[in-house]
Design brief:
This protein is mainly β. It contains one helix and five strands. The chain has a five-stranded antiparallel β-sheet with strand order 4-3-2-1-5. A hairpin with a 4-residue loop joins strand 1 and strand 2.
Length: about 80
């Protein structure tokens, strides 16, 4: 089966262990660590990740989430050195 989604080579690679950040206008910062990248039952690539949210009026919280690879890469596009 061929690859049907476009890969943007200018983005940092989304792979297990990678850490990314998303800064929101409300001074909230979402920091994520990729746990796993792989296809769902329909073959669509998804990212499982740990999310930590802090800043603004939020003290802090953390949870595990899953997003489609393209959505994840669009939102979390600031790599963080670990």
């Amino acid at each position: 089966m061929g690859q049907w989604f476009k890969i943007d080579r200018t983005r940092p690679e989304v792979k297990a262990g990678a850490v990314f950040r998303c800064r929101l206008p409300s001074h909230v910062v979402e920091t994520v660590e990729v746990i796993e990248v792989g296809p769902d039952a329909m073959g669509v690539p998804h990212v499982k990740y740990n999310l930590v949210v802090a800043g603004g009026t939020i003290s802090s919280f953390a949870e595990m989430r899953t997003l489609g690879l393209e959505t994840f890469a669009s939102r979390y596009n600031e790599p963080v050195s670990v």
